[in-house]
Design goal:
The chain is about 70% helix and about 10% strand. The chain is an alpha+beta fold and about 300 residues long.
Length: about 300
């Protein structure tokens, strides 16, 4: 009987404050969708880091005839066979180096034509204009500076480049977008909490006569507060369900279909459905607990009968 009464009071409260309840649901749904999206973005960045950092190389570009005339770093002339042999020997002695691959000027020219053969510049380039290089696979990509310090400025070396630096800029941008999403989520969360508190306040005020009678007949504070807490929890759960739906639909249309980023950006290792499904229970739990806790503390102030 008590459970039936509590459920009936929940229905009455939701109907009386239908507009505010709808606003709570929308704000909770948006804030939780942003929260879940931020978690997925963090997983995506971690996945991309693990995928790409495993493939980055450090490149040592050697001086050619053209560099000897135009680049101050190659003022001593084109790299010699002795200098190349010394570079290879020193690389193999370094504990951070996993693998060394030589790319000749002709191989560099062939690779350039494969990638940028349609560009106007490709028709004017010749193989002797490109540099031969050594591509170094590191055991730890974070140890790039060890190689750079050892070879940058050495005779016959035009430059030392780290591909990880380019990826760091990309991941920095993605992390910045993630923090921006978290900031918007925090703002939406504050709005949702304010709406929950106001909804509970209005509901408690509109039913102050009923709660006063319940107090007079000996009802406990918990029994009086339970319908209000459950109202907020129900609205929060609905918002959490909507947020879960937004995450699933977003993953489906952005990566698998619709935009189909998995097909258009096949070089990116996107997170799978398992990562999305793993976040849904957390989103639902927050959707349930956050409004209920907010309502509980709001009632301590506004439900005094």
């Amino acid at each position: 009987m008590r459970a039936q009464f509590v459920l009936s009071e929940i229905g009455v409260g939701l109907r009386r404050n239908l507009t505010m309840t709808f606003a709570v649901i929308v704000s909770v749904a948006l804030s939780l969708a942003l929260f879940g999206g931020s978690l997925l973005m963090r997983d995506q960045v971690s996945t991309m880091k693990g995928y790409w950092y495993d493939k980055v190389n450090v490149s040592i570009f050697l001086c050619n005839k053209g560099d000897a005339e135009s680049d101050p770093k190659c003022a001593k002339g084109e790299v010699t066979d002795e200098q190349k042999a010394q570079i290879v020997s020193d690389l193999h002695k370094m504990p951070v180096v996993e693998k060394v691959t030589h790319e000749s000027a002709k191989e560099a020219f062939d690779h350039y034509k494969q990638q940028f053969g349609d560009s106007p510049l490709a028709s004017s380039l010749t193989s002797d204009q490109l540099q031969e290089s050594y591509r170094i696979k590191l055991k730890d990509p974070e140890k790039y500076q060890v190689v750079a310090t050892a070879f940058d400025g050495r005779d016959g070396v035009q430059s030392v480049q780290d591909q990880k630096g380019i990826l760091d800029n990309l991941f920095g941008l993605l992390n910045g977008m993630n923090w921006a999403a978290l900031a918007v989520m925090a703002l939406m969360l504050i709005v949702a909490l304010m709406l929950i508190v106001n909804t509970v306040r209005v509901s408690a005020f509109s039913r102050r006569r009923e709660t006063g009678i319940m107090r007079l007949v000996g009802a406990s504070s918990f029994y009086i507060q339970m319908p209000f807490i459950m109202e907020a929890a129900v609205a929060g759960v609905i918002g959490g369900v909507v947020a879960c739906g937004m995450l699933l639909v977003g993953r489906y249309f952005m990566i698998d279909h619709g935009l189909a980023l998995s097909e258009k950006l096949n070089l990116i290792n996107f997170i799978g459905w398992d990562a999305v499904l793993a976040k849904l229970p957390l989103v639902l739990a927050i959707g349930l607990l956050m409004p209920a806790i907010a309502a509980f503390f709001a009632l301590r102030k506004y439900l005094k009968v």
